[in-house]
Amino acid sequence: MGACLGACSLLSCASCLCGSAPCILCGCCPSSRNSTITRLIFTFFLFLGVLVSIILLSPDVESQLHNLPWTWECEEGPVLQSHIDCGSLLGYRAVYRMCFAMAAFFFLFALLMVCVRSSRDPRAAIQNGFWFFKFLVFLGITVGAFYIPDESFSNIWFYFGVVGSFLFILIQLVLIIDFAHSWNQQWLGKAEECDSRAWYAGLFFFTLLFYSLSVAAVTLLFVYYTQPNACYEGKAFISLNLVLCVCVSIISVLPNIQEAQPNSGLLQASAVTLYTIFVTWLALSNVPDQECNPHLLTNIDNRTILAGPEGYVTQWWDAPSIVGLIIFILCTFFISLRSSDHRQVNSLMRTEECPPILETTERQQGRAFDNEQDGVTYSYSFFHICLVLASLYIMMTLTNWYRPNETRKMISTWTAVWVKICASWAGLLLYLWTLVAPLLLPNRDFS
Fold first, then answer.
1. How far apart are CA 386 and CA 332, in angstroms?
2. Which of 175, 72, 119 is CA-nearest to residue 389?
3. Torsion angles phi and psi, residue 176, rounded to 5
4. For residues 173 and 427, is the Cβ–Cβ distance under 8 A?
5. Are 175 and 331 in contact (CB under 8 A)?
6. pLDDT tens digits for 67-87?
7. How far, CA to CA in Å, does 128 sit from each of 80, 123, 210, 278?
8. pLDDT at site 102
9. What pTM value is reported for the model?
10. Around 27, how many Cα atoms within 13 Å sit in the side-chain half-sphere?
11. pLDDT tens figures, 120-179
12. Which of 33-37, 228-232, 260-264, 370-374 is the least confident region?
């Protein structure tokens, strides 16, 4: 009898895994939208790949990577006799392959879901269900990726990572703008409803906090990433980005901007400023000059050592990578859960608000519901493209933007520095556009 009940339970779980998203999470999220649950499960696939990538960078796993077919060159290379160089190199190569598998998996679904308009499309059933088979596909691509011959794979995939990371940094900034806008709008609304100045005080506090953190961060960047008679590039990057942040902050409170967009203000500008300084920090952490970069791994006497007091140790985690990983996790969750009321951000992110009438009707049923019968609430393909870019960004973050050069050592490059600096400039221009667009295009509705 117990065996029969167990078999029935397994069959029930199997049917859920082969069915729709609401079937899987209906017990945990009884009033959730089908579209939200689907995005959360795909995000779980991404985080699963990130977890595997982190495990691949651990010393115990690195020591086992020598058995894979593409690692023999590491053992034969004359400059890689020390354990740290070869171990780090193999760990980074393994992360490249894991993230290649994630990117290929999400890109496959991006192609499959092109032009899906509603859940009535047969392809929507693939998007929202068959999770067990999706996991098998994900597993198969991952296994195959580890048997790709190295040759020039790492060098070519590095440039894919550079482009993808640049685009994902911009997506993160769009999400931060959206979050700050929604935050500002909600607190202003509550201040008007309750006729209380406490909400205004809260907005002022966080705005001051973000600007204070930005000033403190700029000071620390000048202290640790510049020298009195050197590091001129770093000084120029920090100073220029600081001036640009001050300019967009002033523009955000100009009378014409406030008249066109009453909800814009210093809270959004302070969040953008803090994120821009953070991206500047990421850029400076990749400067290939030991004098200007305390995180740099250098090669001395055929041994890779840390350019700091730690000495001969392998360093795959540093402060920029940890903070970048935390922001990555928060932004990826926000992509899965967001339902913005900012028209410009919705246009950039290819999303729209969920119809409130449909949502109210379906919530009364007390279960996860299909809220896309009349139209999808987000672009399936664009969502998967975002996950592709997220896979490439996390690949570069976990490997500290290093790549093998001709001698097969892991080196830092100016390419990474310029990509991040240019991304910070592009992000500021994007935020500036959200401010001035209603003035430049008065005939369009930006409400």
1. 9
2. 175
3. -65, -40
4. yes
5. yes
6. 666 555 554 444 333 334 565
7. 47, 9, 39, 36
8. 94
9. 0.78
10. 3
11. 778 888 888 888 999 999 999 999 988 888 777 888 888 899 999 999 988 888 888 888
12. 370-374
CA atoms within a 13 Å half-sphere pointing along the CA-CB vector of 59: 7
% of the chain exceeding 90 in pLDDT: 26
Closest CA to 56 of 43, 71, 41, 42: 71
- pLDDT for residue 240: 95
Q: Give a three-class secondary structure readout of the chain.
A: CHHHHHHHHHHHHHHHHCCEHHHHHCCCCCCCEHHHHHHHHHHHHHHHHHHHHHHHCCHHHHCCHHHCCCCHHHHHCCCCCCHHHHHHHHHHHHHHHHHHHHHHHHHHHHHHCCCCCCCCCHHHHHHHECHHHHHHHHHHHHHHHCCCCCCCHHHHHHHHHHHHHHHHHHHHHHHHHHHHHHHHHHHHHHHHHHCCCHHHHHHHHHHHHHHHHHHHHHHHHHHHCCECCECHHHHHHHHHHHHHHHHHHHHHCCHHHHHHCCCCCHHHHHHHHHHHHHHHHHHHCCCCCHHHCCCCEEEECCEEEECCCCCCCCCCCCHHHHHHHHHHHHHHHHHHHCCCCCHHHHHHHCECCCCHHHHHHHHCCCCCECCCCCCCCECHHHHHHHHHHHHHHHHHHHCCCCEECCCCCEECCHHHHHHHHHHHHHHHHHHHHHHHHHHHCCCCCCC
pLDDT top residue among 66 and 81: 66
The CB density around residue 175, as the number of other CB atoms within 10 Å, is 23
For the chain, how far is it from start to end, CA to CA, in angstroms?
63
Distance separating alpha carbons of residues 422 and 425, to the nearest angstrom: 5
Structure-token match 């906090």, residue found: 209
For residue 102, give both structure tokens: 């994630």
Q: What gap in Å lies between CA 43 and CA 46, rounded to an integer?
A: 5
φ/ψ region of 350 (left if φ > 0, alpha if ψ in -120 to 50, else beta) reads left
- Tokens 């840390």 sit on residue: 306
